[in-house]
Amino acid sequence: GAVIGILGGGQLGRMLAVAAARLGYKAHIYEPAANPPAADVAHALTTASYEDAGALRAFAQSVDVITYEFENIPTSALDLLESLKPIRPGRRALAVSQDRVAEKTFLNDLGLTTAPWASVETAEEMTAAVEKIGAPAILKTTRLGYDGKGQARLREASDAESAFAAMQGAPAILEGFVNFTAEVSVIAARGLDGQVSAYDPGENIHREGILHTTTVPATLRPAQRQDAVLLAARILNALDYVGVMGVELFVTPQGLLVNEIAPRVHNSGHWTQNGCAVDQFEQHIRAVTGWPLGDGSRHSDVVMENLIGDDITRLPDYAREPGTAIHLYGKAEARPGRKMAHINRVKPRS
Ligand code: ATP
Ligand code: MG
Ligand code: MG
Questions:
Q1: What is the 146 CA–ligand 2 centroid distance (Å)?
Q2: CATH classification of the domain holding 230
Q3: Is the ipTM above a cut-off of 0.90?
């Protein structure tokens, strides 16, 4: 049978591999870290580094198509892999989502609204950026940030110096602080034939920078719901995208602002596992293998909750709850801030 290569062996890679298996594919996982969550569901596992050209070449030769669970794949590895097998979603989506300045530039060029922003690489640029954007604001490293890491908040302009120092010399972006009424995300898919399908937007609540819950349906007016789906489709089409994408949005009285995009299955899309006939993982496998997209309409109301660190000790209680589906990642050690599992609390659609 055909083999799907998946870069990254975390919980997203694990759930992609399970979905691949359900569609009759084998999953070859490439993950340099030890004991990855995806290992026990993988058909093959490569643990070499992304600098190992021989291992990358052998990996590419063993698979039919390559996809990924994270956007920070080193460019040199991508260059080599791309010369051997199709990578889906493609390079453009990666380039745009790896760098917050490229991302905001792309979104603004598409006519989409973001927080006001300025690029910050030097102390002088920081001063100019604070003059332009004002306070409150958030300074973020342009690359490699996730779960709110690599960010410093400026309550007032005088926080500029300490915020800049917190970046430790890494290129950064200063964003005006958005007074949102809610955060929502759209999980959308685009097939190899250009067909687009979006899941119902979910409403997200974060704790300490990490996603805590996603609730569907989101409290959005019908016009906002349609705006959210249409702007996601615009992003996918502009990138000639193939696969599932997560689009994070701020809801404000002035309309929807795009926070960031993720060129992969997304934590805020985990509710689809118990709210839809075809979840985001199957949808992604369908897209990257050229299948028609599946039915992503929502048949249930769902609240997804991440179990982080010690939250996992409450698992026996969740296991007794009626209507609660449990998704464990197979991680042995529960460190603070580490995503261990999620639960979906499901009710028939209201
Ligand atoms: P992720 O894990 O989603 O990739 P990340 O580290 O890339 O997170 P962001 O999504 O940029 O970080 O920010 C994390 C959270 O911080 C957002 O979901 C939002 O709650 C808040 N936040 C980020 N940027 C802004 C902003 N400009 N104004 C207000 N709040 C913001
Ligand atoms: Mg992010
Ligand atoms: Mg985010």
A1: 5
A2: 3.30.470.20
A3: yes
